[in-house]
Structures are given as C-alpha cells and as structure tokens.
Amino acid sequence: MADAESARGSPPARVSRDQNFKNLILDYPRYALEFFARDEAPAPEDDADIVPVRQEQLQQRLGRRYHELDVPLRVEWVDGRREVVLFAVEEESDGRRFSRHRLAHYCLDLAEMFNTDRVVPVSIFLRAGSAPQTLALGTERSRYLTFDYLACRLHAMDAARWLDSDNPVARVNLPNMRSPAERRVEVYAQAVRGLLTLEPDVDKRAKYLEFIDIYAALTDNEFRRYRRQYPEDSTTMAGFFQRARDEGRDEGRDEGRVEGRVDGERAVLTRLLRRRFGPLSPAVADRLHGASTADLEAWADNVLDAPTLNEVFDPKR
To answer: How far is 229 from 3, CA to CA, in rounded Å?
Structure first.
C-alpha cells in the first residue's frame, strides 16, 4: 500500500488540473478575469456581461481547426464604454509544455469566428518553465506577425500579498503561489478561511475545499498542525465531510437499492481519502471496490482522525 505522505505529495493528473481550472473560471468568471487578467478585465464598477463561449459552438463552427483550450469568455460592456472583448484563457501546469503557436492559432480562429480583432490571450502557469512571451514571424527584413499574451505566473506570485484578498479565485489559489515552507500551513488556512468567508454556497464551498486540498498537498504532519492551530475551520471542514457522507447515504436510500448505497458510500469515501492523502494507489482502489457497506462506513469514520492512510483501514496498526 502506498505511503500516505508520499501520496499526499504526488501531483494531481493533468486532466484533473485542467478541469479544476475550467470549473473555477466558469463559476467565478468576473473574479477570474480580475485576478488572471487584471489589465484587461472589467473594472469593479463596470456593468459588464461575461458569458462563456460554449465548447459545442466552437466545435461546430471551427470544425477540424478546433483547439480545445480551457475557457473562452465573451465580455460585453452594457453601457457600451468598451467594445466586446473575447478572453482566451488557458491553464498550463508546466511552462515547458506551453505552445505560443497553439495559443496564437486558437486566438486567430476565435477572431475569425466572431469577426473581431478584440481578443485577449491569457495563460496561467502553475510551475516555472521556459515559456517565451512573444511569437514573431518574419525574416531579417521585417516582422510580419507578432503575437503576445498575458501571463499569470502563479508560482512566482508572493502568497503573502494575497492572504487577505476578497477575491475568492485568488484565495483558493494561495497554495499555488510562492511561500516559505514554514508558512505552508498558514497559507492553506488562509485559503480555506477565505473560501468559507467569501462563498456562501455550500456546494461551491465543498468543491473548492477539494481544490485547495489538491494543490496544497499538505503532508500528514502539516495537516495535523493545521487542525491544532485552526480548530474552528478544521471543524467546519469536518462538517462538509460528514455532509458528503450523508448525501451519499441518502442517494443510496432514495434509489432503494443496496448497490446504490454501496456505490454512494464508496464514491464519498474515495473523495475523502483523496482529499486527505492525495491520489490513491491501485491497491487502495481495489480494496475499496471489494468492500462491504459496513467496511466503507467504518473507514469513513476513521478518515478525519487517522494520521496515515494505512490507519484509515487498520486503526490499531
């Protein structure tokens, strides 16, 4: 069975990262633009409509030229003070994999599709890497095409500057910013506290507590420190865990089938284990798949207090 601490430190899969940021931008489009593209975003006092461009629309109209980046957003100022702007926002977990050519191609496709030259490319970098800022095509005689983009380099941002931000997108991204190792627990706590303070919706709280956990990747010792130093916030998080368990049980009962309840319990427990300990090994997944309802409930009761993944399954170990 995988060691709990190493599992917590493992990076999440790229597909999961991409979906996490898509969800974040779609749930908080105005805050996302304010944080990731401040120079071009609508001002707080602007009356602006921000609408995602549907991926289905892009697929249909761009055909084979379609490039699925993260989230294109259409911003329209209601009072007409600015013309409509399209924001092409993508997240790149590794700067070394970033392609200026791909992003430029995508922006040109958007511009052609919407018959506009008002397109703002935005790339969000989670990690350091060699990502040139400009693409220039031409010869020694002249440049014939120059392409630039807004770069939000989360890894280089100082988390201390954003600890008290009232922007929920900034707060949940605190773990992605630069901070000394000795302040990781404080940064995590401020991310959680910001979410609980700024987001009243219970479902979004649960979703972005998981987001914070994934990117913070606290070790077991750090998580225990967090629970000691921030007991009230930790208790609130425990309440969300319990709520998730209860919802899983309710879904099983509503379906009226034992299989539905077992699947609900298994799905909730899997989510809690990943939140506490990071990605799960195939051996753990197999154990969960073959477990009874009683086993799943017993393990779920252990999740909050067990210091290691192994002890979730065997508290006497």
So the answer is: 25
Cβ neighbourhood burial of 124 (10 Å; 0-12, 13-18, 19+):
buried
Q: Residues near 170 by Cβ (< 8 Å), separated by ≥ 6?
A: 31, 35, 162, 194
State the pLDDT confidence band at 306, using cuts at 50, 70 and 90: confident
What crossing angle do the helices spanning 14-27 and 29-36 adopt, rounded to 10°? 110
Phi, psi of 30 (to 5 degrees): -70, -45
Question: Where does 157-291 show beta strands of DSSP type E?
Answer: none
The tens digit of pLDDT for each residue in 194-247 reads: 999 999 998 888 889 889 988 998 888 898 899 899 888 877 776 666 665 566
SS3 316: coil
Close Cβ partners of 149 (under 8 Å, ≥ 6 residues apart): 100, 103, 121, 122, 123, 133
